[in-house]
Amino acid sequence: QTGHTTLDYGFVNTAATKSAITYIDGDEGILRYRGYPIEQLATNSTYLEVAWLLLYGELPTADQLGAFDERIRRHTLLHEDLKRFFSSLPHTAHPMSVLSSATAALSTYYEGQSDPNNPEHVELNTIRLLAKLPVIAAYAHKKSVGQAFLYPDNSLSFVDNFLRLNFGVMSEQYEINPVMSRALERLLILHEDHEQNASTSTVRLVGSTGANQFSSISAGINALYGPLHGGANEAVLDMLARIRDSGESVQRFVERVKNKEDGVKLMGFGHRVYKNYDPRAKLVKESADEVLTELGVHDPLLDLAKELEDIALNDDYFRERRLYPNVDFYTGVIYKAMGFPTRMFTVLFAIGRLPGWLAHWREMQNDPQTKIGRPQQLYTGSPRRDYPGV
Ligand code: SDX
Questions:
Q1: Which of 174, 176, 194 is nearest to 185 (CA)?
Q2: Which ipTM did the prediction report?
Q3: 7 φ/ψ angles, rounded to the nearest 5 degrees
Q4: What is the pTM of this model?
Q5: In this structure, are residues 346 and 233 in contact, taking their beta carbons and an 8 Å threshold?
Q6: 315 near 254, Cβ under 8 Å?
Q7: Contact 223, 198 (CB under 8 A)
Q8: Which pLDDT tens digit goes with each residue over 344-362?
Q9: Does the C-beta of 323 come closer than 6 Å to ligand 1?
Q10: From the CB of 229, is ligand 1 less than 6 Å away?
Q11: Can you state which reaction this protein catalyses (predicted)?
Q12: 356: burial class by Cβ within 10 Å (0-12, 13-18, 19+)?
């Protein structure tokens, strides 16, 4: 259960990070947060309850969860000056760039209250980030569609407040859609943590230098942005739309992937750890049909995704390389059905992953073994030589 202490990458033994937060078995397709199976949490829990579990190691009591929820509601407002920050960026700015830069900017309002060694500062800034990042994310969305920002409505739940900030408009009362609310809650839970993935490792590495939570989380957002990581959910929808619009058959596309033509990849497939079906992808796929039906949306891209999966799973190229759908393969179709623009998909991944990043940042800070992160190197460059004429 504790996993390996060292991993052999073929030429350099790298001591693995020890963590008690999330357990993954890549061969068996197992994912557990603090020992609880992801399938049970996604079906029965809430984003904030799971956030508490990741942060503190146990499920909260009803009173603890109530107080946690209340504290977060009371920290959703952004400083009015920060709202003007958004107007300094072009309306074409990618929401992930807006999110990472506004998160870094957030720290400028809390200088003197961001000491990583001060437990009160750490608690308060955990609440601030959980409360304010969804607001920043929604403002990035509103900016990209040229609509006015709304103020948070703290009478709403975390997810409903987030939906209203994204889809509500000044001129109308926003009606919460319970199907969207439950589907988004479930998707956020599925993204809350995933062990030592690239963005979480980035948060830990940046935090190990003594950088505060805001700077560490902003770095994690930038790492997540890449299309090989969190950016894949956006890349999947772009890939499906390109296949649809090109008129190319799915089989022909798969042949191009197998021939590695122009470096094309089957986005949303493959994983550094899962060499079996990503348990999250299974849960997302199961709910995709249900959510689209309940939202009254028929999206041919979902049918296209299923056809792609079916062909790939029955093809030796993918089987030999143990390539299966990962969490990003089906999520975008659901986000699209909810009304999110494609460029918001990775922002939604970031909001989901935030509690895991914060939990890992704390775990690293509280680990007496923690030293400033400095990965080992095997030097492969030139031997010693002299400067000409020396
Ligand atoms: C996330 O780490 C995490 O936990 C991440 C994440 C999280 O929750 O934080 O799970 C979220 O990032 C999921 C991954 C999202 N990315 C994508 O869907 C992008 C497409 N996937 C690939 O880029 C790739 O699968 C990776 C980067 C995800 C994993 O790469 P690996 O395990 O290092 O595999 P590899 O690059 O060594 O490839 C092995 C072989 C190669 O072929 P050969 O050289 O042996 O002939 O498989 C091929 C690769 O070309 N391959 C693919 C492929 N992924 C690997 N071929 C086509 N399409 C793909 N998607």
A1: 176
A2: 0.96
A3: -115, 140
A4: 0.95
A5: yes
A6: yes
A7: yes
A8: 999 999 999 999 999 999 9
A9: yes
A10: yes
A11: oxaloacetate + acetyl-CoA + H2O = citrate + CoA + H(+)
A12: buried
